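Problem 12. The chain below contains 367 residues. Write out its predicted structure in token notation.
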Amino acid sequence: MTQGYELYGAEVSYFTGKVRAYLRYKRIPFSEVLATREVYRDIIMPRVGWPVIPVVVTPEDDIWQDSSEIIDHFEARFPEGPVYPQGPRQRLAALLIEAWADEWLKIPAMHYRWTKNRDWVIGEFGKLSRPDLDAAGQREIGEQTARPFAGALPALGATPETGPAIEKSYEGLLGELDAHFAAHDYLFGSKPSIGDFGLYGPLYAHQYRDPASGELMKRIAPHVARWVERMSKPPTPKGGAFLAHDEVPATLKPVFERIMREWLPVLIATAAAFNAHVAARDPADAGKPLPRALGMHAFTLEGATGQRAIFTFDLWMLQRALDFLRSLEGETREKAALVLKEAGGERLAEFPAFPRLARRHFQLVLE
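Solution.
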């Protein structure tokens, strides 16, 4: 038994930020444990099986991993101040934003971190991994730790050729979000939703906190920066309300149009590749973890074409939103699906079937 909820993570971590902000809003008592080299060696690797954060250890000594599953576990235990809207339109919109922010916004987050903030982040990695070393030792460790992260850029589609398009897209998104947060404290009213927590991961840990990216955000999107600050220190923990009448603000329409324009074609191609992979899979591999990537495919962003890995996890996150949509019936479903269709997402409302995914032993598998 532990003494309470322990969050193993770091300030530089995309998904630790998402979980930490949730715990603060819900006023769930927790202690944060810095994910040092020793923590990875002694706790995370033996109990999870691969090097990943965030990880939560419960008072019963259970292990939770993956930000969405962690939040869902906590929502079941601490239902006061729910972060999932009850209205079907708002709930579908929140789930879609969470999935998109978790998976697609990795591209600008990683691009800006490793092309605009590299030296600073290397120092942060060194301090995180080996707080016991002097500055020179931390720099050396930081360089070693940084290599796999910086090396992931091509798999995400972030290359020198696509860099200008990534920046154009991200700065356009900042403008759209700035207009929204000028009118609303959060995505759907005066309290944060699961969509807000998903969005906070990249916009805090990479884009607000990294110095060059933070300066850009504060300069061109000050209302977004203030939203980040509200999410970091919630003024009304467990309080606030979602907008009445299941309203999805019109100020979010440009954001949904961007999701449909940029991410939806990638999702459709990913589903096709996944279906082909499963059809060709050796029956002897049943029950084994799925690969994190299924080769490479083309994508287009702001008129630029590049190559990126085909990530299976995108479909697991999308499945959450699709499951909710498919649980609705009749007029209720039609009204919720309008959120997608009005933004050009008819193909998402009728998304092609793919084999169901599940997570077992902290790995993605066929259900």
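Discussion. Strands lie at 5-9, 30-34, 55-57, 63-65, 293-301, 304-311, 357-360, 363-366. Students who got a different answer should revisit the alignment rule from Section 12.3.
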